[in-house]
Amino acid sequence: MNLPNRLTVLRFLLTAIFVWAVFSHLHFGNTLALVLFCAAGVTDILDGRIARQRGLITNFGILMDPLADKILICSAFIVLVERHVTTLLPAAFHLGDLTFRPKVEAWMVVIIVARELAITGLRLLAASKNVVLAAENYGKHKTLSQIVAIIALLVLDAYREWWPWLQDALKGWVPAFALVALWVTVVLTTTSGMLYLWRNRALYLNDV
Asked: Would you identify the CATH topology of the domain 3-205?
């Protein structure tokens, strides 16, 4: 197994440990979860780059690399829903008399997971017709927004385990940033999915 494929397999393993860390109740469990998610994200960057630079692209990598990405992202959002419902509410911030809490709602995750399943199904349909669907900028921006949102939400839970002076520095803006990042990713996920399905509608409408 070459290096990029090992990194892909490592991302599966890091995802499993990340999920465990979120619910581990360790003293620094939130910080550990944050580190593990970031490490998994780094493997995503490295495996594709190394595979292209060294000409190590394989069928295993073509199949498993995007699958590992989707499992990582979807797992993160799902465990955040469970966490915010049963164990830990995220910190709130106040805007005048209004109180906002950047909480991951179940309907948000349904949109995110449904989008990934729909696009994966469309690509499988395209592959069966010997059509290659290229990634679009909207999709790339969506992925980036998802990663930023997850990291911001994990920081929101983790910073309360850090030094008091760092907590004071972060609590003024991290909750607001996490809320904005969460809504941006919901909007981009919805928009990119609808645009992708519409632009490639001939693939599935021709068979209706």
From this structure: Four Helix Bundle (Hemerythrin (Met), subunit A) (1.20.120)
